[in-house]
Predict the 3D structure of the following.
Amino acid sequence: MNIDEYQTMREVEDSYWWYVGFRHIYAALLDEFCGDAAAGRVLDAGCGTGAFMVFLTERYGPKRLTGLDFSQEALDFCAQRGFDDLVRASVVEVPFDDSNFDLVVSLDVLCHRSIPDELDPLREFRRVLAPEGYLLLNLPAFQFIYSEHDMAVHTKHRYLNWQVEAMLRATGFEPLVITYANFFTFPAIAVVRLAQRALKLFAAEVDDVEHKSDLNPLPETANNLLTGILKVEASLVTRVSLPFGSSVTALARAV
């Protein structure tokens, strides 16, 4: 990820609709299937600047919460939030013994271009999970909406739900829920992303231009409205698999 993106993420992730709304979705899944695991030994594998660790602490009070990230800049932000169980490492080689955690969380990490094969970190997550431990996974969806934001955060690939299911089953997980998320706003997102791509064809841009994410502050009313839309999705994801969206969200159990 571009270094400046960590600062941007830290500034917006506590209140920006996408982060807040998705935390409601994750909470719905954890509450329904594995609240006890979320209160146990938890690894946030790719913890970024720490907002989800704050959420886990406030909602579940885990017995042990460890943040792992390859970026020292990200870990520095986590430390500023008061966390001290932090490890600098790659998800490809997780530096913990077998059966060390009850829940592993990996949110928009395996798509990173530094990871040559997504199965490697999934095998590592399975290894460090206790028997019948849980994995909460989120990945960006649908390659046709690949954007400047993806380039800014070094996303290599966007996924389809069947690809995520195949990866989980191949690495020793039983999927409990696999759903697309950000369903209701997806048509608008797709139109905007495709329009941006079309405009780029007519722009005299060079390949080494610095890419920027789209984490721009919104008016409070719009931010609250979009957050509310994702809250509605949170009420659905434990009962139905949404047919499309900008992300694929999965909860799986180690088998």
About this structure: The radius of gyration is 17 Å. Residues 3-254 form a domain with the Rossmann fold fold (CATH 3.40.50.150). The CA atoms of residues 189 and 246 lie 8 Å apart. The chain has one domain: 3-254.
